[in-house]
Amino acid sequence: MTTEVVPERPRASTGGIVATIILCVFLLFFTVGMAVLSLLLSLQSDACGSGTVCDDNGISTGILVAFFGCAGAGLLGIVLGIIWAARRKRLAWLFPIAAGLVVLGFWIVGLVLVSAAAHVSLS
User: Fold this and answer.
1) Percentage of residues in the chain with pLDDT exceeding 70?
2) Which residues pair with 120 in a beta bridge?
3) Is residue 102 assigned to a domain?
4) What is the pTM of this model?
């Protein structure tokens, strides 16, 4: 009778887990900051009504994309980073970094949408 030896899964280093936790905390603050800034995108519509025609639906869409995109991507990155680190996989710190870039991307897309809607010219 033979017994098979199951090799142990490689474990992440303690430094990698600590880095993941620290990056998740930074991602949380970054996500909250970008979500708050996305609510301030409505300030681009200040010139609306004084000779400038604006697309109100476009402004609302841009703000919603920026807010919910930032919040969703940030929370998903934190959850995935913690779950991946808890399972002792390697490179768990990539999730918070990638999520931070996605949060920034959603905010930029929202900014572009709001800017385009706030400067509509019908002439």
Assistant:
1) 88
2) 53
3) yes
4) 0.81
- State mean pLDDT over 6-13: 66
pLDDT-derived band of residue 32, with 50, 70 and 90 as boundaries? very high
**HSE (CB half, 13 Å, CA atoms) of 71?**
11
Whether 23 has a pLDDT exceeding 80, the answer reads yes
Q: With respect to residue 63, please indicate whether it lies within any of the assigned structural domains.
A: yes
pLDDT at position 11: 64
Q: Residues 68, 74, 80, 81: what is their CA dihedral angle, to the nearest 10 degrees?
A: 180
| Closest CA relative to residue 83, chosen from 70, 95, 100 | 95
121: left (phi over 0), alpha (psi -120 to 50) or beta: beta
The domain of 66 spans: 25-41+53-118
Count of domains observed in the chain: 1
88 assigned to some structural domain: yes
* Domain assignment present for 75: yes
96: which 2 tokens? 């918070």
